[in-house]
Amino acid sequence: MNVLYQRFFDRLPVRRVEHDDAIHLLNDAEVRYIARTHRLALTMAALLAVFGVLAYFLPTYAFPKLFLKTPITIAALDLRFELPWVELLWGVVLMVVELYCLVLVNIWAVHEMAVATGVITGATKKSQAGDLLGVALEEKSTQLLAYGIDPLLGLNRWALFLFNALMKLKGFIGNKILQYLVRRLSARLAVREVLDFIGIPLYMLINAYAAHVVLREAKVVIMGQQLVALLGKRLPPQVATTAAEHDLLYDTLRLIAVSKRDFHHNHFVLAKTLIESYSMEVEGLEELPEDYADRLRAAPEGLRRLCGLCLILGFVLDGLVTWRERRRLAELRAKGILQVEVEQVSEWARDFVSGRGIESLLAAHLDSQGVPAPAPA
């Protein structure tokens, strides 16, 4: 299936869009183009939900004789029922087709967003295809593990699996709840047709929201990679030269991981940039040492600033600061690990996602160390 997705991506044309060289920032033309692409993709995703429901139920009403049922008898349980195997098979086929079309919509929209920001050109499309397809297909990258960093370290894996399974089933569960409420409100007089189609708005919402999540993530990944590339060019080389300084920087990456509890591509890019820029040795999987805060307070000012910048970027680079993460930020501030207000970090995250950039953050932590800011475009 991935081969088909790759071919579809390769066949998409690279249209000419007015953009600038600051890929981690968005100008007015880029914002308008991305917003238009976003709206169109959400509309197509919602319409696919309508198509799926209508294509499933209308034929069963119009041609009931085609949807054969097989009588099933379980003598041991004194149970008899009819298995609508044709209808079930038809539903599976439609589900596969709908999911395939949804993925194509996501790939198209991610491609258009990358073109709008200048990440994809005729020359760079082939090299960028892998990362962008990964975003469109919602593939979680576990590349952080190669650097000895596990965001899920210490979590109960079974509880995590059950939570993710429940999230995958939320559409089905929500539709069953709607059907139950309709039955109750109509005193069980609701006809089958009403119950069958009552879930259409919910499925439209789920499809549209799923597409929104993918497109938002695509924008975050596109701008985040370029932001980290800019950071790599402005890193002060003298602040982390000893093994102890490397360990503190490495533990900062671990703190980011266990605070966000997610394998995010931008966090991998940040870790890769820091480890390669300071020639740090890759360490094994370890939990965050309890003396991290004390070591950070005792570190030279330049290293403290860099660790503080990396921590803030860790919360910003996935484009979302949840309430749980806000509490985590407050804890870090109370321990003296961070010196900025929680609301300021949330504002930087909003600026990053909107394309306004976070130059004020970089300037406050880097420029004072003698690293010049880039010249205005």
Walk me through what this model shows.
A two-stranded antiparallel sheet has the order 1-2. It folds into two domains: 1-133, no CATH class; 218-369. The protein is elongated and about 80 Å long. The protein is mainly alpha-helical. Strand 1 and strand 2 (79-83) form a beta hairpin. The chain has helices spanning 2-11, 28-62, 85-117, 125-136, 157-168, 170-185, 192-197, 200-234, 243-260, 265-277, 292-298, 301-316, 323-334, 342-354, 359-366, and strands at 70-74, 79-83.
| Side-by-side strand order of the widest sheet | 1-2
Strand tally is: 2
Radius of gyration: 25 Å
Count of helices? 15
* Biggest beta-sheet profile: 2 strands, antiparallel
N- to C-terminal distance = 42 Å
Overall average residue pLDDT: 82
Brief overview, please?
The chain has helices at residues 2-11, 28-62, 85-117, 125-136, 157-168, 170-185, 192-197, 200-234, 243-260, 265-277, 292-298, 301-316, 323-334, 342-354, 359-366, and strands spanning 70-74, 79-83. It has 377 residues and is mainly alpha-helical.
Topology:
Blueprint: H1 2-11, H2 28-62, E1 70-74, E2 79-83, H3 85-117, H4 125-136, H5 157-168, H6 170-185, H7 192-197, H8 200-234, H9 243-260, H10 265-277, H11 292-298, H12 301-316, H13 323-334, H14 342-354, H15 359-366
Antiparallel strand pairs: 1-2
Helix pairs in contact: 1-4, 2-3, 2-8, 3-4, 3-8, 8-10, 9-10, 9-12, 12-15
